[in-house]
Design goal:
Layout: H1 2-26, H2 36-40, H3 72-107, H4 110-116, H5 124-132, H6 142-151, H7 156-168, H8 171-180, H9 183-207
Length: 208
């Protein structure tokens, strides 16, 4: 896509990630998250502090929900057990999602994508962003796909939109997010990625 297209891609992806982090920091999404230990089917092992106990402050200074920091060793061990438990609970979902995404990406010919996101389609960029969602590829694997699509007349903006959507919102990510977040958060995330991919594609076409 050339240096200019690559610059648009990198800048847009960085800005989108930064804005999303700010939005999540400002909006309380905790009520829309699922309890991880319950999903994992087991609770993490209890944390045994490895540092001397500190006398509890007066009730006015702390809430009963607050827990003392138990030290890096104990905290990292508990976090590792929780991560493994969560991974075990959703490993099959991720495997199925990766398999479906790879199958779609390998079996759908470039001609089909070119017909959706061709230059003669006025909605080529959003169509490319929508088409990229079910695909699952690392961004480096989009290089040969991008070359094939460009050779068939697909615009650079559509290719950028396809790359961002395919890398940012795909079937494995959907499977992962549905295990840790409720439907509203998942829908908002996918809508955000779709908008970012469309904007990046339109900016690429505008600049180039």
């Amino acid at each position: 896509i050339g240096p200019a297209g690559a610059a648009v891609y990198v800048t847009t992806a960085f800005a989108a990630a930064f804005v999303l982090a700010l939005m999540v920091d400002k909006v309380d999404i905790a009520p829309h998250l699922k309890p991880v230990p319950a999903l994992a089917g087991q609770t993490a092992p209890p944390i045994r502090p490895t540092v001397p106990q500190i006398p509890s402050p007066p009730p006015s200074c702390s809430s009963p929900e607050e827990a003392l920091w138990a030290g890096w060793q104990a905290e990292s061990r508990a976090a590792w057990h929780r991560a493994l438990a969560l991974l075990r609970s959703m490993a099959w979902l991720i495997a199925v999602g990766v398999g479906l995404g790879l199958a779609i990406g390998l079996l759908v010919p470039a001609d089909a994508l070119a017909s959706i996101a061709g230059a003669d389609n006025p909605l080529a960029v959003p169509a490319a962003a929508a088409a990229g969602v079910p695909l699952y590829f690392g961004t480096e694997l989009f290089i040969p796909i991008g070359d094939a699509l460009h050779a068939k007349g697909v615009g650079t903006g559509s290719i950028v939109a396809l790359v961002i959507a395919g890398a940012g919102a795909n079937i494995p990510e959907f499977a992962l997010l549905t295990k840790i977040a409720r439907g509203r958060v998942v829908a908002a995330f996918f809508a955000y990625v779709f908008v970012v991919a469309t904007v990046a594609g339109l900016l690429t076409d505008l600049i180039l």
